[in-house]
Structure formats: C-alpha cells, structure tokens
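ARCHIVE CARD
CATEGORY: sequence design from structure
SOURCE FIELD: tokenized fold
FIELD CONTENT:
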C-alpha cells in the first residue's frame, strides 16, 4: 500500500508453533498446495497457500536453532492479519501520524529455490502494537521480491481454493475495534446489524462482532465448487465438515489447530 491509499490484504497467518509437520500434513490432505518449507532469517519457518491475491500462511518455529520470539509469544491458531505495503517507510509514517504507534520497519528474508537456482525472498514489515489489536497480530508487509512468492506453479490447488474472503473478529466493543482496523487500513468502517465491518481495497472483509473475548474467530475462504474440499475433509482425520447451510457456507473445523474456516463456492 502506498501512503494515502487504501490497503489490500497481503496474507493471513495461522501460528502452529512447534507443530509445523502435523499442520502441513493436514492442509495437504485437505487438498491445499503448500509451498516448500521456508526458513526466515528471523528464526521462523513457514508454508504458504497462494492465490493471485492474498495468501494463507502457516508459521512456526524450528525444533532447533534460532527461534523467532514474536512467533513463540503469539497465540496458537489464527492470529495474524497482514496488509500490503508498497513502501514500509511510508506506511510507518502514515500509521504514526494516525496515532497507531507502529514499530519501525524490520527487514528479513528466506531462501527460495526456483528452477534449481538458490534465490532470496526479501520483505520489510511494520507492526502495530498488540494492545491496539488484542484479537491478533496486525502488521503490514512490503514484498521486495514478489516474483519469488507469487509463482504460477503455486497458484492452483487440488481442492479448488481460489481466494480469502473475510475474517470474523470477536470483540467486546465491535465498533471501537472496527474503527481501529479501518484507521490502520486507510478505509472507512460501516456499522452492521451484528457489529461493524471494514472492507479492504480488494474487498476482503474484516467483520467485527460481539464476543466474550477479542480473537480472530473464523476465516472465510472461497473455492471453485465445494465438492473437492468436502470429500477431502471427510477423508482427513481431525477435520470436521458441516454444511453447506442455506446461505451456501460450509464450516470446516480443525480442532487441533484451533481453526475454523467458513467455505463458500464461487460457482
């Protein structure tokens, strides 16, 4: 996101801590195509599930070696909402001017092998304090090498996954918290019957609803039809599939990851 323009979604993070192998096996069984295991210079590991827009990330820490304290200190499960930045310095200045107390940009990288070549994917991120967004981590990511992340061979999934649609956030003060997300994203919020909503520049929605505690509760995904993901969920131990209901939404729960996915068809 360039300074002064509305932000789009970059990615959403599921923190698996030291359970990366188990988490990756579940998502692979469900028909998501995972990128090869990445190792960040900060001391974290990841797999990505890419779409042409925002992507889903599994993040954790390795069993040995340097371990990223930010990941270890973050709650297990769905806990990261990451917005795009075209210029981390400009994003930092804008967030500071808005009174959101951002941390200065942090640069890091991870090795990537493309067509037998050893390359380096590089990033800069700007974080907003957890106290301002108690439901989960909110930060911005500038991709310095996007061509090493959005690769054509990683954009197609056997289960038909095509995009991320929304995240449902529970809050004791939905309108107050939604106003914070809107300020961070540089967009307006709207009051809804159930709470408040924020639509990012790419129509990804942050729906803030009443709840007993602040948390990222549900992630909405779209698929090119639900038959493939339903069949894979039925065959995957630890995956619970319900629906779809009258609104066309099916719920995929993965209790071992404390994760709830709301699945819809684009057809």
């Amino acid at each position: 996101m360039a300074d002064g323009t509305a932000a789009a979604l970059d990615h959403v993070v599921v923190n698996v801590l030291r359970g990366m192998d188990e988490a990756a096996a579940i998502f692979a069984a469900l028909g998501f195509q995972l990128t090869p295991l990445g190792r960040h210079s900060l001391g974290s590991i990841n797999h990505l599930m890419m779409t042409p827009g925002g992507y889903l990330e599994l993040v954790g820490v390795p069993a040995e070696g340097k371990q990223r304290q930010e990941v270890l200190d973050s709650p297990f499960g769905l806990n990261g909402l990451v917005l795009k930045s075209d210029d981390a310095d400009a994003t930092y200045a804008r967030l500071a001017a808005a009174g959101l107390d951002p941390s200065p940009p942090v640069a890091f990288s991870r090795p990537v092998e493309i067509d037998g070549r050893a390359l380096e994917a590089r990033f800069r991120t700007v974080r907003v304090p957890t106290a301002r967004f108690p439901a989960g981590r909110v930060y911005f990511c500038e991709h310095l090498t996007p061509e090493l992340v959005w690769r054509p061979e990683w954009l197609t999934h056997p289960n038909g996954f095509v995009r991320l649609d929304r995240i449902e956030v529970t809050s004791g003060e939905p309108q107050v918290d939604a106003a914070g997300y809107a300020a961070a994203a540089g967009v307006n919020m709207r009051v809804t019957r159930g709470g408040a909503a924020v639509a990012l520049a790419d129509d990804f929605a942050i729906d803030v609803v009443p709840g007993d505690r602040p948390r990222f509760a549900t992630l909405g995904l779209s698929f090119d039809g639900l038959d493939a993901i339903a069949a894979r969920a039925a065959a995957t131990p630890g995956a619970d599939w319900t629906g779809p209901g009258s609104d066309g939404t099916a719920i995929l729960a993965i209790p071992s990851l404390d994760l709830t996915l709301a699945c819809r068809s684009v057809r």
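CARD ANNOTATION: The helical segments are 20-29, 69-72, 88-97, 174-185, 227-234. The chain has five helices and 16 strands.
SHELF: design records, drawer C
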